[in-house]
Design brief:
The complex is a heterodimer. Chain A is mainly α. Chain A has eleven helices and no strands. The model of chain A has no long low-confidence stretch (mean pLDDT 89). Chain B is of the alpha/beta class. In chain B, strand 1 and strand 2 form a beta hairpin. Classes of the chains: A mainly alpha, B alpha/beta.
């Protein structure tokens, strides 16, 4: 694990020495701050809409940070040839990939803490109440969802050489799953034969990222998710994340580097 | 059993990108052995298979057949690289890190204990004369300084075997002299150096033994003195003769 943590540390360092994270954070802070300070139509419940918009912004920012960071990791290692002195050290290829995954996931976790802390500060100043467990569940499930995406983008970065094509594909897939993933079984019902089997297969094979989207817990201050369901969702994310990272390790295990 | 590096009947084939040709032979039946404390020059024209052989030794490329061992351990094993230092031909490192951070990262991969780690970093930075710039990001370094960072990272674990791929390419005369001094110093300490170079005068000066590779096959191998006496010419003339060069 020593090597894994060493690589993860470098990924975190890289992320916080680049400008993209700060640009997104400042943008989110500005929009959240402005929206949190205005009152539209003298409506007391307007804060719900503000929360919805700001959380959407946080979700988009986190997707951009997670996918762009992990998508460029392995291609840039190869393109900049930094992978050669690195793999000439006693580190296995699996440790390198797990380190990249862990570093990016932890870095995204730190980014989420920044985003949600500021968002919570703004909303609490309007609502005068802080539903800690709602925030905890929403933020941690968001983070576990990013874990699945990071694993998927890491695997993609070994298949598609260009980080931009990998990032675009991951964005399209993530957006498609978030928007239509839950409806695929209903689409399958309207089909027959092979088509139906294919859509059902797709429905059961894709990681259902939408189950991690519990922004309503914060927006409407609903009661929290029962902990067994929360635990099941976390386990689901861990299994999918591990599946993608294992796939990446298998793909990279014997790949010639020259 | 004094061999630090042992290659037996190594064959490496690549999938060819040329139409009508399925594979390309990069190394064919290479057998050689490097003993402890030797400075071994690995020579050959561009495309001879030197870098491919080094890539096999470092585990970057898998051999099609044959074996390669470092300290008796198969090169595919991660542990084979524990006592090895490697300087690639083109030095590229994480530009967002400082030299000190880069060396600390690599030292962690070698599991050098924390107390010893900082002393090692100080010592290699002093050796390559980068102490003053240790806290500057690598992206601000000149080419020569980046090459010296490369040398520092190759020495961070105090390696018993150093693999250098054209270590002096792109360096100014002072940089070349410095690299040569370091190789001589390592030789004096009984360490093994395996390096490729196109600077044949330099090879003649520092190497105990050389091997000349051409079109993936080993053409000549032996001690520098023996080869010079045997062929009655200097290393450069021998090299040109072996690769079949004829002046126009």
């Amino acid at each position: 694990m020593n090597n894994v943590f060493a690589v993860a540390g470098i990924v975190i360092k890289e992320m916080y020495r680049r400008k993209d994270f700060y640009v997104l954070l400042i943008l989110t802070v500005l929009i959240t701050g402005v929206m949190g300070s205005v009152t539209f139509f003298n409506d007391d419940k307007i804060v719900r809409y503000l929360k919805e918009l700001c959380l959407l912004l946080i979700w988009i920012s986190s997707l951009v940070i997670a996918i762009t960071t992990i998508a460029r990791q392995m291609p840039s290692e190869r393109e900049n040839r930094t992978i050669f002195p690195l793999l000439a050290k006693p580190i296995s290829r699996g440790e390198l990939l797990i380190g990249k995954f862990l570093g990016c996931w932890l870095a995204c976790g730190i980014a989420l803490v920044c985003f949600y802390s500021f968002f919570a500060a703004i909303t609490v100043s309007r609502e005068h109440h802080f539903y800690f467990l709602n925030y905890f569940q929403a933020a941690t499930l968001h983070w576990f969802m990013l874990g699945i995406l990071i694993g998927m983008a890491l695997l993609g970065s070994l298949v598609f050489a260009a980080p931009s094509s990998n990032a675009t594909i991951c964005f399209v897939v993530a957006t498609a799953i978030l928007l239509v993933g839950r409806h695929l079984n209903q689409v399958a019902l309207s089909m027959r034969g092979g088509q139906q089997a294919f859509i059902y297969g797709l429905y059961y094979a894709i990681p259902h990222l939408e189950i991690f989207d519990v922004r309503d817990l914060i927006i409407h201050n609903w009661s929290i998710i029962a902990w067994p369901y929360y635990g099941a969702a976390v386990l689901y994310a861990l299994i999918y994340g591990a599946f993608f990272v294992a796939g990446a390790c298998l793909l990279f295990r014997r790949k010639a580097l020259n | 059993m004094n061999a630090v590096l042992k290659i037996e009947n190594l064959r490496v084939e690549y999938r060819s990108k040329e139409v009508g040709q399925r594979t390309k032979l990069a190394v064919n039946g290479l057998t050689l052995s490097v003993s402890r404390g030797e400075v071994f020059g690995f020579l050959g024209p561009n495309g001879a298979g030197k870098t491919t052989t080094m890539n096999v030794l470092l585990g970057f490329v898998n051999a099609t057949s044959g074996t390669a061992r470092i300290f008796g351990v198969d090169v595919r094993e991660t542990i084979a690289r524990q006592r090895l230092g490697y300087l690639p031909e083109l030095t590229y490192y994480y530009k967002f890190l400082t030299a000190e951070e880069l060396l600390r990262f690599y030292a962690k991969l070698f599991r050098i204990p924390k107390a010893e780690r900082e002393a090692r970093i100080d010592s290699v930075l002093k050796l390559v004369e980068l102490e003053a710039a240790r806290k500057r990001p690598i992206k601000t370094y000149s080419k020569g300084m980046q090459q010296r960072v490369g040398l520092a990272q190759a020495l961070i674990n105090n390696p018993d075997l150093l693999i250098l791929d054209e270590p002096t390419s792109g360096l100014d005369p002072i940089g070349r002299m410095k690299v040569r001094e370091i190789i001589q110093r390592l030789k004096g300490e009984g360490r093994t150096v395996f390096f490729s170079s196109h600077e044949l005068g330099e090879v003649e000066t520092v190497c105990d033994r050389v091997a000349i590779l051409h079109q993936g096959e080993l053409k000549v191998e032996g001690s520098v003195d023996d080869l010079i006496h045997q062929h009655q010419c200097n290393l450069e003339q021998l090299f040109l003769k072996v690769i079949g060069y004829r002046a126009v």
